[in-house]
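Morning!

As promised:
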Amino acid sequence: MSIRIGIFGYGNLGRGIEAAIRQNDDLTLAAVFTRRAPETVKIRTEGVPVYCADSAAEHVNDIDVMIMCGGSATDLPEQTPNMARIFNVVDSFDTHARIPEHFANVDKAASESGKVAVISVGWDPGMFSLNRLYAGAILPDGKDYTFWGKGVSQGHSDAIRRIDGVLDAKQYTIPVDEALAAVRSGACPELTARQKHIRECFVVAKEGADLARIENEIKTMPNYFADYDTIVHFITDEELKREHSGIPHGGFVIRTGRTGIEREHSHVIEYSLKLDSNPEFTASVLVAYARAAARLNARGEKGCKTVLDVPPSLLSAESADELRRRLL
Amino acid sequence: MSIRIGIFGYGNLGRGIEAAIRQNDDLTLAAVFTRRAPETVKIRTEGVPVYCADSAAEHVNDIDVMIMCGGSATDLPEQTPNMARIFNVVDSFDTHARIPEHFANVDKAASESGKVAVISVGWDPGMFSLNRLYAGAILPDGKDYTFWGKGVSQGHSDAIRRIDGVLDAKQYTIPVDEALAAVRSGACPELTARQKHIRECFVVAKEGADLARIENEIKTMPNYFADYDTIVHFITDEELKREHSGIPHGGFVIRTGRTGIEREHSHVIEYSLKLDSNPEFTASVLVAYARAAARLNARGEKGCKTVLDVPPSLLSAESADELRRRLL
């Protein structure tokens, strides 16, 4: 009784889902849905059909969970509620400020259809959120910190690419070691954006472009760079492709807190990720929550959930007995 | 509508529970139960009664969750099922090999009484188990490692104290830095006990005792020390009390795994704890799960659970809306 997964959108994340499904014997890739012409989309798994996104409803009996692989800006706010009217769904919606609104829309759709939707799955939001929850519940008298990186920020890379004279660019967000050390000490420091992260940029400029102007435009760009110590390197297109084509990321969630009648004892809880491929790791989290969504729905649950709501054991292919024996 | 907590057993862990309850506005300490003469037990919270352990059943209407603070060797196997016949209960049963048996006994009692019992709560078993579960579900093609320390092992300290000529002792378990580095590299090394941990012992000997013999007996003790590199320091009783009276502990759960069609990407998930007080941190985890036990029972659930089963959001005093807004 394999759980049949549909992939809705076949970009980096969708390809990551396809690879992750192969690592889980109890999951099967049933179909891929795309807004492109299906015959132009070549997938890696033999024998699995590629359908037009508009035809998803016709495959309602073939798919147990649809994993939504669109973008958070415009795709998911529309696609996730739409698909939740037909399927159990999982998405990685990550526009933090709009999560309550997205939750409400998806919850309405999934409650009406009797399906389960799990939104904002991945690592942040996702595993980082979970770790903030656990650590905060255990150490209420404390403070938590999130550091991102070292990793590629797509948004910051795009912002550089929009500057006149820039051909291509990659931006790495890098946590500052001294800030990490100060947090781990339990001193509960107040840290500015500049104190927490460095921004390092690798930029390919057009021939003859004014490099000093480009560097200045980057370093003074409001919101993106002005509040940070920013390092700019100009490199060739060949070097960018050779050295900076990966999509690594990661980060740290650290909470320090005190216990004891006199607050005499200090504790540090730290969770960290070091990821070679941001989309493949995110996909691996989504796939585990797709399993949970199918199980929750089979239990009779419906409506919208987040990682904060899902009982951990539902993520694993192993039985509750096995998990207790092996992990506790 | 505060959740009323009972403490069953008033040692280090029970005192930790008492302190932790004060950090949570929605929890109240209702009573302490002891096997000693109640009038000889002085607690830190004014106005809270201390009762004889045998009288617990008389207070069934005053307590929402009983937190069991006895030892795993002989207390909890008997006490937790007994109390689960009357109360929602939480315990920190940590004899790994006997957890399935304890689970079955407690599940029978709690299912019959209609109460919720959460067993094996703390950090290992507990938060470490949870992190093994999440990491394993996300990266099925991987391997995980647990390192303990730097921290005091009560069992190893006791083993040294039983040697003839020893007055007192403290043993620290220390993870080996090179082993941690090898694991984090993603190389999936096979590590022996000796490669993973060092054992450092601070020993107070009787005047005139044969130190060389004591050191040899420690280093060759089967199971406890023979398989490790063990360092023995002889110190005075004053120094032991001054420098080694704390109960620090902690450790690391690390999983590395690969993703991608060709297994081309490597990932590291790491969770670590650095604790000034092992019993106070364990108590803080128990208190959060006591909140969850009360809520699960209020929803109509019954029977035995572990940390693997409990939806994370039930641990927090905050509402689901607040948690989504603040943590996702």
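Chain B touches chain A through 71 residues (CB under 8 Å).

Hope this helps with the figure draft.
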